[in-house]
Specification:
The complex is a heterodimer. By secondary structure, chain A is mainly β. Chain A is about 0% helix and about 50% strand. In chain A, a hairpin with a 6-residue loop joins strand 5 and strand 6. Chain B is built from no helices and eleven strands. In chain B, strand 7 and strand 8 form a beta hairpin. In chain B, strands 2, 4, 5, 6, 9, 10 and 11 form a seven-stranded mixed beta sheet that branches. In chain B, strands 1-3-8-7 form a four-stranded antiparallel beta sheet, with no helix packed on it. The chains are: A mainly beta, B mainly beta. At the A-B interface, strand 11 of A face strand 4, strand 5 and strand 9 of B.
């Protein structure tokens, strides 16, 4: 079975600075997707960034980028120029392949605080 | 973008009663929907996979007779919590998979409080 581990329950960053959230996962699959989701106080899950396992290039979405190390099964999220609105719970997630039913499995989450 | 709605957003029920939560995909036909449960300050735990026209697939440890899932149409899945107890109080989130893009979209969640 696949597992997702986020070892940082909380992180704090100064506004305008950069922060990196860590995530590791375990799987025997070769084809899968990895995601970072943001969950603000409203509890609505918001997709931040997506990475296909077969792509070596790290995904980037504006201020958000990932460091995907497939061999190490590591998938960290870097937030640059942090803004107050980035404060939220961040979940790393793994989506199984078709044979796994496309299920999405979430890590425990990292709460990000942004200081003004 | 694709939208998934849930109804109600918040429900309070008495212990022993049943409550139904609806999940609708508004922009696409979802052959597959997923139900998650989230306790306060915890992660989302997958409860079951709901497939249109067939029985739901439950994750290990989830009581299928307590959490009844029906996916009768391509845009609607329902989760019924039967004989609710206070320990069933939680935040329930559904998601729907767009079969044309394989993207998964999340609903806004339903807060269930059992008194």
């Amino acid at each position: 079975a696949q597992t997702v581990t986020q070892s940082q329950p909380e992180m704090s960053v100064q506004e305008a600075e950069t922060v990196t959230l860590s995530c590791t996962y375990d799987t025997s699959e070769s084809d899968y997707y990895l995601f970072w989701y943001k969950q603000p106080p409203s509890r609505q899950m918001i997709l931040v960034i997506r990475q296909e396992a077969y792509k070596q290039q790290n995904a980037t979405e504006n201020r958000f980028s990932v460091n995907f190390q497939k061999a190490a099964k590591s998938f960290s999220l870097k937030i640059s120029d942090s803004q107050l609105g980035d404060a939220a719970m961040y979940f790393c997630a793994y989506r199984t392949s078709n044979t796994g039913g496309f299920k999405t499995i979430f890590g425990a989450g990292t709460r990000l605080f942004v200081k003004a | 973008g694709a939208v998934v709605s849930q109804h109600p957003s918040w429900v309070i029920c008495k212990s022993g009663t049943s409550v139904k939560i609806e999940c609708r995909s508004l922009d696409f036909q979802a052959t597959t929907m997923f139900w998650y449960r989230q306790f306060p300050k915890q992660s989302l735990m997958l409860m079951a996979t709901s497939n249109e026209g067939s029985k739901a697939t439950y994750e290990q440890g989830v009581e299928k007779d307590k959490f009844l899932i029906n996916h009768a149409s391509l845009t609607l899945s329902t989760l019924t919590v039967t004989s609710a107890h206070p320990e069933d109080s939680s935040f329930y989130i559904c998601s729907a998979r767009d079969p044309s893009t394989y993207e998964q979209y999340f609903g806004p969640g339903t807060r269930l409080t059992v008194t």
